[in-house]
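seq as requested:
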Amino acid sequence: MTCSPNYFSLGVKSDRKELYDREEELSLLENTTHPIITLTGIRRLGKSSLLATALKGRNALLVDLRGTGPNPSPFLLLDRFQDAINSSGLKSLWLHLSRQISSITLGPFGVSFAKTRPLSISFASLFDTINEHAENAGVDFVIALDEAQEARGYKTLVDAIAHSYDYNRKVRFVLAGSQTGLLNDFLGIQDPASSLFGRYVYELPLKRFSKKESLEFLQKGFEACGKKPINIEETVEKLDGIVGWLVYYGYMCLNQEANLAQVVDSAVNLELEELSKLRGKYYRLILKAVTVGANSWSEIYRYVKANSVTLSDASFNEALTRLVKYSLLEKKDDTYAIPDPITAEAARRF
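struct tokens:
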């Protein structure tokens, strides 16, 4: 089916006309003078698409760190940076890196990093060399790390970002993460032991669509495909303003003629796969407690205690804190809630 623009395409978008709204966020990312920006928000709000669109055709690297950590291998991180450099198509950068760093070789399709033990290239020297390239070209250069919290445990990368913050005037960083607490822990802006302690970081939280924006998104998306809007009021009530689920609904309706119940069931099954990866004694019970109306610490604690053989206060508190850092729970005014309605439904079945 031909749609123009296609708001309901799956995967990361990089075409501006297919990215609905986000004008303010795009403008900030495209024109930033901040040395470090954090782009945060729960999963499926479109952070990756926003980054890819904002950086397309610019002097920038978009490094995908999904699945690298925690405690990632430096060789795996180097591979992701190498992929980003080659995907950028910036041949002048390829040439500069290969000339300035002896362990980087240039081929017809990009650069290759030597994988030696110990590493023959440091992230700090890589950022320094990118800064030299940017100075020679008279441009600012953006290095964006998608799901940056995946690199937690590898302090050397934070040290390199701090080094670049201090010395590289042409390099800027955008650090995107769907697990805000873990991203903040990784950067350590408030941690005296972190090399980024005390540095200024501009925070850009990506919000879900309002009800009006969600309705307009679905309406325009269906109309762009030559279809009448399908059940959009009930859909927005069920899926809230989480653009990833709204896209999924539109795609399923157009390609499989699915109804809302089928789409929700399919989305919940996807989310159950994600929740099944959680490894912790009390995660399941804490999430279940919130779905049955327990929203304070004491109410959640009582539910977990009533449904577990043993309960350690320390382990319970650690699990509750960790779920907030994972952004599976939100804490506001001493109450807890599951921010994603599909996650909430999956937790009921978890």
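The chain has two domains: 22-205, 283-349.
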